[in-house]
Amino acid sequence: MVSNEIRKNLFLKVAVVFYFVLIPIGVLFAKELVVDEAKDKLIKAQVEIVKTGGKSGIPADFVFKNDLKFEDYEVEVAYLQAILKSEGLYCRQCRITGYFGVGTWSGVVAFQRKYAKEIISYQKGVVSGLTLEKLNRILKPGMVAVIMDCQAKSPASPELLFPEDNAPKQSLSLTLKWQSVSDWGSVCPTESLMTKKYRLRISDNLDFKDSLVDVVLPDSQTSYQVSPGVFSPNTIYHWRVLADNGLLKSPYNLRSFGVSFSPTIDLKAEDSNGPITVNYNNSVTLSWASAQADNCLAFGGWQGEKPVSGTEKITNLTESKNFQLICSGPGGKVQDEVSVEVLPLPTLNLEAFISLDSQNWQDSLQDFAPLNGVDVKFKVSGNATGLVTYRVDCDADGDFEQNFAKVSDLEKTFTDICSYPKLGVYQLAVKVERTGLTAEKNLSLVALETKMPDLKVVSLEKQSKNTYLAKVINTGPSIDKETRYFWLVNYVAQMAGKIPALKTGEIVNFLFTVPFPVSSAKIEFRADIDNQIDEASETNNFLIFVSP
Questions:
Q1: The model scores a pTM over 0.70
Q2: What is the DSSP letter of 191?
Q3: 36 vs 126 pLDDT, higher one
């Protein structure tokens, strides 16, 4: 749908061409007007006066007070046409009639364009607001606009706040600020016609011929951020703001300022904007680069003056830190920062166990000698990282003779690694190493005296020519190991066998054969448990050795 306003503008433009090129002037005013007869006579009378006297025919006390628009038929329109004619803006063929036609509309448009610096807002081709004010000022130069019985008053000038006058080194993205106007003056014939607004202009020349910014802002807005790309560095600019109440404007307040580049800074840790994480007591390399800066100052995790670009290694970090850097230049100051988080102090914990069978693990061991083939198990924990070295010192003398270097396993078992053949109390030392940390532990071992069965001969009978049966009872403590036995004839070993595990009071039959007659021979009997040989007593004319 084409709006009424667009339709009207199209009609006016076509009508202007049609009027000036194709039709006689009289046709334009051939439209029949339906008006009051008395009003028509008054208008025609004033038209005749203005036709004769031109602008000077306008009454001395007259001021424009009503809006005028297309198709109006008023005395004021005749006066308007006289002024347009005196300004050279009314077409030569156009007559002063009191009727607002196409010629008058075109003249008003030309009038608004001619005085555009003063008529900063208007409705095209309509006499109202600033257009009406300018007509009154032409009628009475220097006048304070008087409309009917009302005296209009200009608003107060806005006080400019920021930047200060002649302030140097302002940012390229500067925000201008001014004080809100409290006195907006007055307008006529009624205050309801007041429209409050500001006009801001920025230029690089004092006469403001070429304004970089020229905007009308609502009275609620008392600041304006300049868009990127408007300012150039190292340039002086001028700005001014006036208040407009819809009828009258305040005088401009004017200030100037200089613009410089704002400095930039980029601070990184290990080429990262952070935050980054490092291990306890590690180092980190900071790097930074700035532009449009003359000097830099560090604070936070580091201190002191720094060059405008460079690198610095921070060592032995034991706590998290925030590194900050401020760089300054003609365009101001800028700050950047980067955080480095330090992990807690690394720990290395060790658990160790020993066993004779890789099943029953203990942190101390007590058993009958000999303790052969002792197994060792390690368990490593803590937040330390890296490969682990395992070390074993079987006699805990500080010389770790068994080493298993740099493995990733956190639980490790080593079998048959130490032996203790004799009775006694021993210490076995273990140690682990990981990323500079060490954990040690000593394990206790006790090799007990071997418990031997106390064998007593109950009887010794000859079974055949060279075969003998000996009945022996264990009167000593029970033992759960096999006992190896052998006998000797005239101190010469003849045969060996095994006695099963013996309980206290248990009788065992020993049947053995002597390869030659032993009527005058000396027979010895011996028992050997885990290679420990003990001697006993003589019985029944035979010398029988048993374990005590």
A1: no
A2: G
A3: 126
